[in-house]
Amino acid sequence: MSETETERVRKQRVAAELREPVREANALARRLGLDPYPVNYWIIDYDDMNELIAYDGFQERYPHWRWGMKYDQQQKQRQFLGGKAFEIVNNDNPAHAFLQVSNTTADQKAVITHVEAHSDFFRHNQWFGLFAETPDAARMLAGHASLIESYMSDPEVDREDVEAFIDHVLCLEDCIDQHEPYGPARADDREAFEGDDIAARLDELGLSDEVKRQVFSDEWLDDQREDADRAQFPAEPELDVLAFLRNHGKRYDPEAGKAVDFEDWQREVIDVLRREAYYFAPQKMTKVMNEGWAAYWESMMMGEERFAGPNEFVDYADHQSMVLGSPGFNPYKLGKELWEYIENTTNRREVAECLLRVRGITWRNFHDRVDMDDVLAALEPAPSIATVTEGSLADLDPEDSRVDAEGLAAARAGEVDLERYPWKVLSYEGLCERHYSLVKRQHRGFLKRLTQNELERIARYMFDDERYESVEESLAAVDRCRGWDRMREIRESHNDVTFLDEFLTQEFVEENHYFTYEYTHTTRDYRATSTAVEDVKKKLMLRFTNFGKPTVVVEDGNYNNRNELLLAHQYNGVMLDVKQAEQVLERVFELWGRPVNLKTIVKELDDHDVEVARRRDREPVPEERGKLIRFDGDDFAVRDLPWDDVEHLAATDVDYDTKPEEWLA
Question: Residue ranges of the SpoVR protein-like N-terminal domain (predicted)?
Fold first, then answer.
């Protein structure tokens, strides 16, 4: 038997072994309140996994050197750094998930439960809904691959020109308006505007300055170039830089010495890459939420519902520690901790509201009248719900909302393996009680941290505050599903920035030991600088605002009435790397065909001020200045700008600018 046949047989064997876990993981996910897309699972080998990771989870992508670079990076990470690829799943309907054949059964089950949660997130998060063309992303990307391959194979088009043009566009792939629904780039009335631009038409004639001075007076030429009443184009700063360049850009023709229209294939390439940028944008915008969501439900299913069998649990614990314990910024860990915090705070508020409705209990006497240990004992799940065995089936009532009547009947008939799948006899409400967060050992102190201030805030907006006669009566009314219900509500509407902005609190920062660190000129090294939630939140949100990239907009497509492009950096307290900015401007020039300008704000420190501050054991305060970087196709020029010209770009604090206008209405 050949090696290929051996490998094929091995994959088939693994696929057969995973049919039951796939079926049961989906059923458990749905019982827990998730609603995933259908998922197709594929068994692949190590090299295939590296290729899929390089291709962002799809089997076909357009030809380009970037995929080879990512493939090589993934191989080296595994070879030299010990990184392990457990899975990859794409956003599609049906979703497609790829499992590595060499992984252990525990790894495969962990991946399957993780994927089911991802697929639920893809289906219900509204930011994914902004890309109206999904589902069927695999077909879309395969079509893009075929289209670009056809251009590279065209004898009238140089393959290297196509690849270089792709490089230019990819440099701007995140310069889109990710908060708006995707739509094809459409031309506007710029053509009519250009018809009235006499100065631009003179430039396109290629006349020398000497000839122009002989025919036209300097005063007349200056009037054309500095017309203060001309309409600005675009009327408002344009976030979708790719769409603007697609509609109004040109290519520089060195033989003609001027800008000429794009070839048809060039506009098509911009369309393709822009469409892909919009498709992948939601994944970049929800990395913490999405990975945290999947890690939370994976842990729930594998650990707390014992989807990992007794002989698999140690392997699963090792798997989970690798994922959650990886060094550096870890979106899995942050996301899972924040989802748990939301669950706990929601459940705590629900309990507090019920207790504050007991006759005679107010926020002022709450801690004197309520024994939290007794409250926690009352909130423990019923024994028949907490531990489902053959012996406890008689204690379950099919009419109880916590019990699944069909599952109970099947279990009593011996058709359910209760040791492996005890959840089959419980309803969603039963599972909510079984896994109620506040009574878990790791969270038992959470309810006791209710402060007088929080109780006052809750009571301030409460009416009907004498509903119950006793603490016991109020606790019987606690909705144990409230935490999970709230998590699903949040999962539908937020992205990472709004998620962190709304739910990161000082309590969370202290409980999970988050802090900020900065390079300090006083000590000439990095130091922990703050544990205040405002500082931690600012640091984290800057990482995710505009995918962690600078926000650059088109401010003027006819700068100085010369048909030059003016880009503006919306400064949020973090300055650009000027050298990198210049490299990007070189790429933008290839998409505009005429000089390009970038307006930004930089921080400048005087060496003398740094030394004085160091001697006084304090940090120097940099001065912010406006700068204009211009590239004419050959040379760069950098000049200072008056503060009035850049003041509108400066944020008063940190301007995250992440919510669509209708959210603020």
Answer: 16-349, 482-547
Task: Identify which of 93, 74, 92, 94 has the alpha carbon closest to the alpha carbon of residue 84.
Answer: 74
C-alpha separations of 539 from 150, 337, 510, 536, 603 in Å: 44, 17, 16, 5, 18
What's at 642, amino acid-wise? P
Helix (H), strand (E), coil (C) string for 447-467: HHCCCHHHHHHHHHCCCCCCC
Please give the pLDDT value at position 329. Answer: 87
Backbone angles phi, psi at 656, to 5 degrees: -80, -30
Tell me how far apart the alpha carbons of residues 120 and 304 are, in angstroms, rounded to a whole number. Answer: 20
For residue 92, how many C-alpha atoms fall within 13 Å in the half-sphere facing its CB? Answer: 19
Q: What's the alpha-carbon Rg for the chain, to the nearest Å?
A: 30
pLDDT value, residue 220: 54
Let me know if 404 is exposed, middle or buried by CB neighbors in 10 A (0-12, 13-18, 19+): buried
Cβ atoms within 10 Å, residue 603: 13
Token pair 């099919």: residue? 398
The DSSP secondary-structure symbol of 441 reads: G
C-beta pairs of 62-70 under 8 Å, 24+ apart in sequence: 62/144, 62/145, 62/147, 62/148, 62/149, 62/166, 62/272, 63/145, 63/148, 63/149, 63/152, 63/163, 64/163, 64/166, 65/163, 66/170
Encode pLDDT of 174-202 as tens digits: 999 999 888 888 765 454 344 345 555 55
pLDDT for res 7: 83
In this prediction, residue 192 carries a pLDDT of 38
Residue 611 CB neighbours (<10 A): 12
Residues 14-19: contacts with CB under 8 Å, at least 24 apart:
14/43, 14/99, 14/101, 14/108, 15/41, 15/43, 17/105, 18/43, 18/99, 18/108, 18/112
Q: Is the distance from CB of 654 to CB of 541 less than 8 angstroms?
A: yes
Q: Which residue has the tokens 């457990």?
A: 86
Residue-level pLDDT at 442: 93
- What is the C-alpha separation between 223 and 209, in angstroms, rounded? 16
Query: For tokens 């054309």, what's the residue?
Result: 224
What confidence score (pLDDT) does residue 200 get? 55
* CA diameter of the chain: 105
Q: What is the pLDDT of residue 660?
A: 37
Q: What is the C-alpha to C-alpha distance for residues 40 and 93, in angstroms, rounded to an integer?
A: 10
**DSSP state string for 211-239:** HHHHHS-HHHHHHHHT-TTSPPSSSS-BS
Query: What pLDDT, on a 0 to 100 scale, did the predictor assign at position 606?
Result: 81
Sequence-distant (6+) residues with CB within 8 A of 500 are 288, 338, 537, 540, 541, 544
Tally of CB atoms within 10 A around 131 = 19
Q: Are 332 and 151 in contact (CB under 8 A)?
A: no
pLDDT under 70 in the chain at which residues?
A: 1-3, 78-86, 132-135, 187-231, 651-665
DSSP letter for 425, please: G
Structure token pair of residue 34:
């998730």
How far apart are the C-alpha atoms of 236 and 647, rounded to whole Å?
Answer: 16
What DSSP letter does each residue of 233-286 carry, written as one string?
SSSS-BS-HHHHHHHH--EEETTTTEEEPPPHHHHHHHHHHHHHHHHHHHHHHT
